[in-house]
Automatic annotation (TrEMBL):
Bilayer-spanning residue ranges: none
A Pfam short name: BON
Alphabetical list of InterPro entries matching this protein: Acyl_CoA_acyltransferase, BON_dom
SUPFAM superfamilies given in the database record: Acyl-CoA N-acyltransferases (Nat)
Record-given protein name: BON domain-containing protein
Organism: Streptomyces poonensis
All copies of domain BON, residue ranges: 101-151
Amino acid sequence: MTANPAHPVSGGERVHALLTDGTTVCIRPAGTGDQEAVLRLYRRMSDANLRLRFFTVSRRSAEQAATRIAGPAKSGHRALVATHGRDRIIGIAEYETTALWLTPHAVDVDVHEGVVTLTGRLERRSDVTAAVHLCRGTDGVVAVVDHLTYRFDDSRLRPEEPHVHGVTDDWLRKL
């Protein structure tokens, strides 16, 4: 992949990638003008593809996703589009920049008719807030019931440096 600084979009650069079939695509941040193109992509999808993407065949989920992807930037959420030809969107990737450092089985998740119930004990209060926020932002979720507890209240802390997690903490801090 190569960056093309001549075409910045929404504060990000366009990157060109070569696919295995030899096709070149442009990957760039999604912008507010992409909603119709995203909707066209979702309209071309089969019901089976929609079910895998949104866990439902409802076209309303596709409309909500297009609004979210092409909407104003939100803290912790990013979207990228892959385009081919004259900016025809052929792929989308969404991701959260808020990372949760969870141990396996730290959270039990129960879903019934779109209501998500979270139960468990997390390390920090900020992890609870992030987990609830991530669930609320998921298509098809109508409500989140929060039964999460935390060991340490980090809501008043203002770290001087980003916190590094894992066994290499000390080593990375010395770099």
